[in-house]
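USER:
I wish I could look at a protein chain and see how it folds. I am handing you a single protein, as its sequence and its fold in token form. As I understand it, each token names a local backbone shape. I hope you can help me see how the letters and the tokens relate. The protein I mean follows directly.
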Amino acid sequence: MYYLIISSEENIVNIKSIKNNIQKLSDPRNTSSAQADELITATPLISMMMYSIHGNELSGTDASIQLAFQLAAGEDNETLELLDNVVTIIYPMENPDGRERFLSDVEQWKGNVPTDDTQSLPHWGTWPTGRTNHYHFDLNRDWFILSQPETRSRVSIMMEWFPQFVVDAHEMGSFSSFLFNPPREPINPYLDKKIQDWWNVFAKDQAAAMDKYGWSYYTREWLEDWFPGYGSSYPSFYGGVSILYEQARTAGLNVKRPEGRILTYAESVQHQYVSSIANLTTAAKNKSELMRTFYDIRKAGLTPYHPNGVKAYVFDVSENRSRIDSLMKVLEFQGVEIFQASEDFHVTKAKSYLDKKSTNKKFSERSYIIPLAQPHQALINAVLDFDTRLKTSFLKTERESLLKGNGSELYEVTSWSLPLAFAVDAYESYSLPSVKMERASFEKEEGKLVNPSPQYGYLIEYKDDNVIKFLKDLLEADAKVHSAKKEFKVENREYDNGTLLLRLEDNSKNIEETLTRIARKHSIEVIGVNTALAQSGADLGGGEFNLLEKPKAGFLVGQRSSIYNFGELWYLLDNGIGLKTSMLYLDNLGLYDLRKYNVLILPSSWGNLKDTFTKSVTGKLKTWIEEGGTLIAIGSSISVIADSSIAISNVKTRRDNLKKLNNYYKEVAENIAAQSVLIDSVKIWESASPQLTSVEPVIKIDEKEESERDRSYIKFMPQGSILNITLNDEHWLSNGVSKNLPVFYSSSYSFYGLNPAEVVGRLESPDKLRLSGLLWQEAQHRLAYASYLTRERLGRGQIISFADVPFFRAQFHGTARLFLNAIFLGPGMGASQAVEF
């Protein structure tokens, strides 16, 4: 990614020294307040001007060129003063793939007479539009997740320069005007009050600059600063002041506004440019004060602060080391200081995100410790806090808006906690652990074969996330891999269900060489065993091991598919796992030969897909499933295939299932009871008459009352909360995943799978349901015990349904593992494939 650094000639000559001074200023442990004053006096302020993170928001990039020209060529006193006091980093195009895609649309659909009709194709673009990057990620939600290379480029610059002033320039709806800071509530509680004060200073000067031209603008309204992952919020958590621009969009053309006035593209560029100059001028005038704010915020981080008294976050590394390491690397990339314990230790008061109370917890050697007392404290709290809570005053505003039928005041999700999203074994510690520790290092574990030349075969535990890539490579090498349906013990070692088995008799003579190569590549331990006889559980040569099939996967996508959900899953399979996939256009589904595929993925949709599933298309898809296919339906797409006119699936929405809801709740109660069976042998063998018991539903509803209530309650459904599910840990879909798992939920739907559907993952009881984020009691009522993950047999194939997106923003690795199980285990474990001859 390209960026430009512009300042005075003297500053450019001394640029390395300036960067070194900023690094010193960023760490108050090594720089006293007096030394900071000297550095501030001797060093120019660093600003970073970022434009067009959404590729179809064109004006910012062109304004950046005008800004660069003015700073490079301007000889007026104002520009020269700005150059003396500020080193400006210009990041002209944050999303080149999206911009190129959108400009291609504009060129494709633009005529000799340009249209100013915002409904016209040149203004909209075609699916998937240019807003997103290559993998269809919204890059302005990726700042602390760092899943995309564009994000890592920007954040690496920020960690190198720590700009004390940042602009993030966007576009918005064509009929709006121009928006800038300050925002309204909710504002993230870990965002320093000093930053909020600066917003007003910049707003005053920016307003004056726009008033000179009589331009319209506004602040607040829909703009909030709750989510820390925007370009206009993220820098504030290391001590920089950041400002958002939102310019009315013209798509590089003209727009006819409701009042009849024509807004030109040149005007939209000029608004961005004038604002940029105004803000940079304010930054230059307040150079010393802004740099002092930066230093003071980072110095305040040396005193640990958390509303619940947390002093450190501790991560146990006993299982799924690769996932925990990937989270630690994400944090370290952003400057967070991470330590590892040199020995086992105890924390007397530690609380996980699943616990209501703290307990005495033992941690193993090499566990990770992140103390709050460090310069990056605000960022640590912002992204690791298990349950950041909205102010009561805002909750009142939000509820009033919902009750009045005005919709939510929230612009973003209400929870994003990285420990929950990654589903790692994380704890809040209310004291800094008393253990010898050292800065963390992330050395790649060495894969190996133990007993490399066994008499019977090889076993691989199915716990670490790396095992999925290992399995993919094995299947592509035509290895014959089985998966255990039950736990077992062999040669004094216990193995969980899901353990992979390769029998020597099934595989080629060079299987040892193949395993060695792939195990080293993915840091996997392979155990050679000399016998098929188990000490307990299933023998290795029996029927409790299913042969896995190489997945041949395709996405069913079209104009109404969610580009985000499709992009997340495509990125996971393509970039994360390296699995070859096909993209099949939904409208052409009737034309395709589906026999090529054994897995089809139907992402969540933004509109009703029912008209796509004509009678013939539905019949074709149903036949494909019945002949051994695995259909994976995500989110709102479930409601389409379960619709009475299509009826491929029996998983129903709440409104469609009210008549059978009590039956569903009784099945839940029976499943819960089955997990704690007690046997009274006297009653069985000696009782003269049967003493029968019945299980009551976990919830009882009146259908008529519930129908009326449900229409009202639906408005309270979550807008991005993290909820708790319980998994059937004996089912193959949950292999390698803990029994309780945080899931992202942001949907008005709740789904219910009645027999014969298998409910593999269900949302928890009301008292255990919410883990993080806002969940109104009405939503709690609608979601408690609902189905999250289901599996239905249809002929020789199956339908697997996820109630919401499993890899939201490439952040939720626990539910991503469930999705990968559906892909890699599904064709062999849940579908029946023909045996070739």
